[in-house]
Design goal:
Layout lengths: L3 H10 L15 E7 L6 H14 L14 H6 L1 H7 L6 E8 L4 E8 L2
Antiparallel strand pairs: 1-3, 2-3
Helix pairs in contact: 2-4
InterPro entries: CAP_dom, CAP_sf
Pfam family, one: CAP
Protein name: SCP domain-containing protein
Length: about 110
């Protein structure tokens, strides 16, 4: 379920262009994606982020059990955030930071 009130709001609140640490204030898993293309519409930045996160699956060999192990944590953490079985909500935000020269997408997931 997309959760604008909690995960989406926190994703928006943690984007600080001057201090890009992106740690959840409400204890959720965080995935981030940054692009230097300041002309890309925010919706496209988010689509690009999701695509890059799904591409992380190429970095790991998952067996039938598809366990979240050290290999997945190291090489496909953002992919795991997207597909983890017990996740029930997601919230995302995109912000352009022209002074710093980048646009960032941040999504937060429970689970």
């Amino acid at each position: 379920v997309y959760d604008c009130a909690t995960a989406g709001k926190d994703a928006y609140d943690i984007i600080d262009c001057a201090n890009p640490s992106y740690n959840s204030k409400v204890g959720l898993a965080v995935s981030t994606y940054t692009t230097r293309n300041l002309n890309l519409p925010e919706e496209d930045v988010l689509k690009e982020a999701m695509s890059k996160w799904y591409d992380q699956l190429k970095n790991v060999d998952l067996d039938e059990d598809a366990k979240y192990d050290g290999n997945v944590q190291t090489s496909a953490k953002d992919f795991a955030n997207l597909v983890i079985g017990d996740a029930t909500m997601v919230g995302c935000s995109v912000k352009t930071c022209p002074k710093e020269g980048y646009t960032v997408a941040v999504c937060e997931f429970d689970g």
